[in-house]
Amino acid sequence: MTQLPQPRGRLTADKPLADLTWLRVGGPADRLFQPADLDDLRAFLRELPAGIEVFPMGVGSNLIVRDGGLRAVVIRLGRGFNGIGIDGARVTAGAAALDAHVARKAADVGRDLTFLRTIPGAIGGAVAMNAGCYGTYVADRLVEIRAITRTGDLVTIPAADLHLSYRSSRLPEGAVIVEAVFNAPAGDPDTLDARMAEQLAKRDATQPTNDRTAGSTFRNPAGFSSTGAPDDVHDLKAWKVIDEAGLRGARRGGAQMSPKHPNFLVNTGDASAADLEGLGEEVRKKVFLHSGIELEWEIKRIGEPGAPDEG
Ligand SMILES: Cc1cc2nc3c(=O)[nH]c(=O)nc-3n(C[C@H](O)[C@H](O)[C@H](O)COP(=O)(O)OP(=O)(O)OC[C@H]3O[C@@H](n4cnc5c(N)ncnc54)[C@H](O)[C@@H]3O)c2cc1C
To answer: 167 an active-site residue?
Structure first.
């Protein structure tokens, strides 16, 4: 890679991304950049040669990074980007703040962002993925974001311009979200706490929350996630069509479709990215043959395949 600008933050060459993803797989990024603060990030992007790709990464809870790694500068925000400010209904959270932390802090002062409590990512990833569960999505609460463009400009983007839809958003190419502003309804702190505890218990009962996963592997063919309501329709849920095709617990190398929740792809210990992606593709093929439904990946798969002997 050509000479890069020298930031105040940390720039690491050939950083194995397996260290930074929930699935614990992924080859090296050419560079990992952890900016010291907003000005450091802006200056770095301004000076970074135009041909070099950047990939903003959250906490890697929705990613398969392939075994050959990523020919890009991966930007990972940390301290300096994780502040949370609450002013009445307006909750401002840094992109590196964990979803769960934002939900808890808001609840402490009687503001309801409880839907974020059980989602394991950080706020930048939540906005990029329009994360949500139990019937509420980022799109329902987001007012605006601040982002740094690939050329280093700080911009404010209203939620409407992000075209948030089921597990997707439209961000300018290479833009790094640095902050999000939510409109949080009022609620009684004890009631909000109780709701979050209930949601955590529900997750633990139905999903492999202690395994290495990246959450739902495929989008629900119905086009929405669980509403949590008792009359929720399950016939077009990805887990159901995978189960019906007999693929609950299916394995390839160290990869497995969770016996507890068949839409969760699990690294049972020594899976490569190729095992995980290969099993996912096999499931797509078999589900299509069984029911004619074409499952679409929800997990983002990025980077280059490894050499054949790597998996
Ligand atoms: C056990 C488990 C349960 C889950 N349950 C849910 C659920 O109920 N609902 C749900 O919606 N998701 C769920 N997920 C998936 C995942 O947690 C969410 O998609 C989450 O929002 C991803 O955030 P992240 O910080 O990990 O992002 P990453 O996985 O690191 O990145 C995901 C995408 O966001 C982009 N991105 C991240 N940060 C930024 C930034 N600062 N600027 C620009 N782009 C950025 C990345 O480029 C990438 O395209 C679950 C995952 C797990 C492991």
So the answer is: yes
Active site includes 298? yes
Looking at residue 3, what is its pLDDT?
Answer: 81
Nearest by Cα to 21 from 281, 176, 214, 203: 214
**Domains in the chain and their CATH numbers?**
10-76 (3.30.43.10), 84-192 (3.30.465.10), 210-310 (3.90.78.10)
Q: Is the C-beta atom of 280 inside 6 A of ligand 1?
A: no
- Tell whether ligand 1 has an atom less than 6 A from the beta carbon of residue 262: no
Q: Which residues of the chain have pLDDT under 50?
A: 311
128-150 burial by CB neighbour count: b if 16+ within 10 A, else e?
Answer: bbbbbbbebbbbebbbbbbbbbb
CA of residue 158 relative to chain centroid, distance: 21
Closest CA to 77 of 13, 166, 160, 147: 147
61 is catalytic: no
Q: What is the pLDDT of residue 84?
A: 98
Measured distance CA(290)–CA(150) in Å, rounded: 44
| Catalytic residue of the set 61, 141, 195, 216 | 216
